[in-house]
Fold this protein.
Amino acid sequence: MSKNITEELREQLEEQKKDGLYKSERVIVSPQESEIKISSGEKVLNFCANNYLGLSNHPAIIEAAQETMNRWGYGLSSVRFICGTLEIHKELEQKVSEFLRVDDTLLYAACFDANSGVFEPLFGEESAIISDQLNHASVIDGVRLCKAKRYRYRHSEMDELEECLKQSQSEKHRIIATDGVFSMDGDLAKLPEICDLAEKYDALVLVDDSHATGYIGKTGRGTFEHFGLEGKIDLITTTFGKSLGGAMGGCTAGRKEIIEMLRQKSRPYLFSNSLAPAIVGGTLKALELLLQSTELQEKVMDNAKYFRKKMIEAGFTIVPGETAIVPVMLYDEPRAMEMADLMLREGIYVIGFVYPVVPRGKARIRVQLSAAHDKEQLDQAISAFIKVGKKLAVI
Ligand SMILES: *Cc1c(COP(=O)(O)O)cnc(C)c1O
């Protein structure tokens, strides 16, 4: 039996390699920054981290994490409800609630866990979940783990969403679940329309703001701030593993009663370890920095605008948008992988995204800008794209 499966897997892996769908991991031998060192010893410019604000290796955050670890120890060896709740967990929950302007917040080891555990306790067989087709894998998995009826609308198609709402009108509760910023296209959810429809048809709204929290909106609070929808979003899930220092951890934030029930019933919260003190301390510091100044939020947005403009001028096909995710479309899978390899030789670290992460025939290089990039680094990346783009006849 075991021989059969290893043989079968070997064939499948070969197939993946042949189709340009095999993901290999490049090893980095320095901390996460705008310039990183890779295992060959070369220094390259990094354009594929979710390090939007450049906080992943920020001295103040490292120091806060170290101090918190010295004061509170390395780990908790417990889940929250047994003996894993420290004062600082409550403090972080309160700070996140203030930042996201909600009643209460529940911490998880990751946003993947937050999404896995948000639906099942709240929505039973007599409820419906209506989900954007391009939602993050963890939202999809969360929906799979719950007994509610499932509806799916094509990406950002509001007519289809309305149709789903009409069809599910007899259900006891309905919730519309959407990413705030879609990670592969970098586009924003149509939240004003979604909230209007939710109001019209009496549905709840959940936004996974992982790619938005920290830098979207004037003070970086996320898509609700960008669209002026404070109080209209019932549930926000998000990560501390992107803008907010980039270590790990996530949360679900929202109305008091919902969070209270999740604390009782959400399985990844009940049955998984408490967030490590160092991460709690680092995330608290990241939030503090964001509240002090909007300099980093402005810088990453300026960088993204500049990069978009220059790449469009150079003739590349860029998915339109207004976030720091700038997808350079190649369509063809092997070509996207080849382009990423050639870019690395030019000293620019970017990754080709291919099926199943994006649909077949929609391969791309997803460029992510950071407040840590300076103008010179942006220009270096743009020149390299032009050189390699010409070589591969992309432009
Ligand atoms: C990154 C991401 C997640 C996962 O966050 P982790 O904290 O790394 O588990 C969930 N949802 C979305 C939309 C994301 O982009």
Q: What stands out?
A: The two ends are 50 Å apart (CA to CA). The longest strand covers residues 173-179. Residues 59-292 form a domain with the Aspartate Aminotransferase; domain 2 fold (CATH 3.40.640.10).
